[in-house]
Amino acid sequence: MDQDNPRIAIFDSGVGGLTVLRELRATFPDADFLYLGDTARVPYGTKSTQTVCRYAVEAATFLQQFDLSAMVVACNSASAVALDDVVTRFPGLPVFGVIAPGAAAAAAASQTGKIGVLGTEGTVRSNAYKQAINAIRRDAVVWQQACPLFVSLAEEGWVTGDVPILVARRYLEPLLEQGIDVVVLGCTHYPLLRQVIQDVVGPDVTVVDSAGPLALALTENRLQGRSREHGLKVFTTDDPARFVAVGESFLGSSLGSVSQISLEPVS
Ligand code: DGL
Predict the structure, then answer these.
(1) Which of 15, 64, 84, 223 fits a 20 to 30 Å CA distance from 56?
(2) What distance in Å separates the CA atoms of residue 48 and residue 45, rounded to the nearest whole number?
C-alpha cells in the first residue's frame, strides 16, 4: 500500500538554501520537497528587519498552500529576524529555522567557549546566533563577522584557490586572534567555502554548518505524512535558467524543472 511521506517546504532568499535541501534530502530520502528561492529580491542579508520579515511571510504564505508536514526557513538572515512572525502566522505547522540548531551544535562543540560566527550583515546585526549560544552556554564568548564577499564567491563558483583564501583570511584572522575553537557557517552560501574556511582556521578549529543539526532537529519531531510523492518541486521569483545554472552546484545534483512564480503581498 502507498504510504504518506512528509512534505517539507524550504525557503531561502535564493539558491543558498539548496545546501540545506541537500542535507534534508539525505536525511529524509522518502520526503516530498518543495523549495522556493526568492531570487528576485535576494540578498536578504543587507535588508532591514522589517523588509526581511515581510518577504519571509510572503514566501511562507505561498508555500503553506501545499498541505505541508513542516516548513524550513533555510535563510539564516530570515531565520534570525523573521522566524517568530512565520511561526505565529501558521499555528499548527511545524516551522524550523537554522539558528537554534546551529547554535546548539556550536555550543556543544566548543571546549573553550570561544566561538566565532560568520554571517550576513543582517544576521550579525540581529545577534541571533550570539543570543542562542549564550542561552545554552552562559560562559561562551561569541565574536561575529559579516562576510559579504563569500556570497558572491560561492555564486561565482570561486570556492577554491588564492582569491577565496585571501578573502577568508581577512574575515577570519580577527576571530582567530581571539582564540576561537569553533566557527559557525551562519549563512546558506558558506558551506560551499567550507574547505577554504577549514584550511584558513586550521585543524584545531571545528567548523559548524547549521544544515546537519537542522536535519537532525526535524528527525526529532514526528512529522505527519502529507504526500504520496517523494519528489522535488522548485520555485523561483526570477529567471529559472539562472537559478538552475547557479543552483546545481549548491544542491550537488540536477534541479529538474524550475517554475517562476510571483509572491503576493500579505496584510
Ligand atoms: N540566504 C542568505 C543567508 O543565509 C544569504 C544570501 C542573502 O543575503 O540573502 O543569510
Answers:
(1) 223
(2) 8
Cell of 217: 532537529
| 259 CB-contact burial (10 Å; exposed 0-12 / middle 13-18 / buried 19+) | exposed
pLDDT digits (tens, 9 = 90+) for 9-60: 999 999 999 999 999 999 999 999 999 999 999 999 999 999 999 999 999 9
* pLDDT bracket for residue 69 (50, 70, 90): very high
Is 236's C-beta closer than 6 angstroms to any atom of ligand 1? no
The CA 227 to ligand 1 mean position distance, Å, reads: 29
The answer to whether the CB of 123 is under 6 A from ligand 1 is yes
What pLDDT, in 10s, does the model give residues 71-96?
999 999 999 999 999 999 999 999 99
pTM, two decimals, is 0.97
Regarding the beta carbon of 77 and ligand 1, being less than 6 Å apart is answered yes
Rounded CA gap, 221 and 224, in Å? 9
